[in-house]
Amino acid sequence: MTAxxxxxxxxxxxxxFILALRGLSNPExxxxxxxxxxxxxxxxxxxTLAVAAPPDALTWGLIALGVAVGGTxxxxxxxxxxMTAMPQLxxxxxxxxGLAAVFVAAAALYAPQAFGIGEVGNIHMQSLIEMSLGVxxxxxxxxxxxxxxxxxxxxxxxxxxxxxxxxxxxIAIFGAIIAxxxxxxxxxxxxxxxxxxxxxxxxVLGVTLIVPIGGADMPVVVSMLNSYSGWAxxxxxxxxxxxxxxxxxxxxGSSGAILSYIxxxxxxxxxxxxxxxxxxxxxxxxAGKTETRPVKLGSAEDAAFIMKNASSVIVxxxxxxxxxxxxxxxxxxxxxxxxEGVKISYAIHPVAGRMPGHMNVLxxxxxxxxxxxxxxxxxxxxxxxxxxxxxxxxxxxTNPSAKTDPKSPIYGMPILDVEKAKTVLFIxxxxxxxxxxVENELFFRDNTMxxxxxxxxxxxxxxxxxx
Amino acid sequence: MEIDPFIFRLSIFVLxxxxxxxxxxxxxxALHTPLMSVTNAISSVIIVGALLAxxxxxxxxxxGGWIAKIFGVIAVALASxxxxxxxLVTQRMLAMYKKKEKK
Lengths: 467, 103
Hints:
The complex is a heterodimer.
Chain A: H1 3-22, H2 27-51, H3 57-80, H4 86-110, H5 112-115, E1 118-119, E2 122-123, H6 125-153, H7 166-186, H8 192-210, H9 218-240, H10 243-267, H11 271-276, H12 300-308, E3 312-317, H13 319-324, H14 327-339, E4 343-348, H15 358-365, E5 373-375, H16 376-379, E6 388-392, H17 401-404, E7 423-428, E8 448-452, H18 455-466
Parallel strand pairs in A: 3-4, 3-6, 4-5, 6-7, 7-8
Antiparallel strand pairs in A: 1-2
Helix pairs in contact in A: 1-2, 1-10, 4-6, 4-9, 6-7, 6-8, 6-9, 7-8, 9-10, 12-18, 14-18
Chain B: H1 5-25, H2 32-43, H3 47-54, H4 58-61, H5 64-96
């Protein structure tokens, strides 16, 4: 195969990847899009095997071994993973992309002629710069994603861990990485120790960057690491002069960046303030002030009665629904209510859950039709005409003080106007505040009925009461 | 005057960022989780680099050859986890999105 033909085939797989993302504009075309992505990947792998044919049986064996081991692990994980664990899975996948980038860059350093970028100790300067950027971003993605995984998976507390002088520390590490890149480039790749020093420092930087960010800010972090994994791939793509890799890197990089932007906007926080961290501890409490105002309590029977007699109910799910695995019970309740002639819709806040689109996947898993599920902007105008807002596992995204109290930490955050519904049924485990440590005004409103209990158990009891 | 091939690659890169920008904005928010898992899968096209590393010619490469080969195999395995895992989990998720049944 000639180099020109190979380049064209890589271009084809790049285009197929674009179409894979394009397909996601609606659920119907998305499945075809995913298949196009797989074809694109097959073309890229096939082209590489044809253009740089493995020289001997041993090499073929090693490739088969790598693909078999990795592929089996990947396929089994994909089959078995619970939908509620999707945020951690995505974080874990990001870390693998980052680590793969590090290994590919390392291989290029030790055998540059295989990649056509010079010889050992005399690697082209430009390739070295691209490679070191790829390896630094890759290593940050690797360790940062592991921390994100540990926080999401509960191996590590979701509370922000504040290191002393962390900003100075991070800047110092960043400066050292830049200096080492310069040294590596100046030595034409002969000083391999600088390469490994870059890797180690970047791994440390990934940890120090993500550790101070709280669990509830993870949607931004996961999106940001998604973006980083793209930029790392693009860096390696430049080294390898491979357009499929460059296109993909750019696509993934901008995709992650847009998702981080959407998440930040959903919280009305700047990207910088999220990255600097120290916010979003799940157990943060407003200091010294205990709330003594009375709330209206209700039982499952009360809730069932109110909803049965409603003509429209809007369900507002949040992270608590994921934790309690309440989506199936919720769908059962919706079905019962539909039989009573109640119109059900679902309202999803952009930052509900721990990653972009988290709630949508869980509802889809529970067989909720996607045309009953609406985004914030599309459904907010419907709360005033709704009889019941059923808030399950969400809190801060429904807090009216985001609109009225300039002193509130979440002031300015776009929220779902649940308080405008005739009745708000608010399921909650206890009287604690949300992650932002803010009291929710909603609890004390006359039209709010608090249902204390586990989201799943309470919903199941309501199903029972509906008969 | 000849143009450095790097400039061509940079052009592809910049244009692809813009393509990505517009394509991703058109993704429906309901599919943001599958978007993340599929971008995960496609960014594992980095396996291309890993395959080159495994296929290194040991005679020409000298002592660094074995190191590159081993790193390459590890990278092939890591990327394969993502390729298979990423595409399959996306497929599984997308299969769950259903429209309202017509009665």
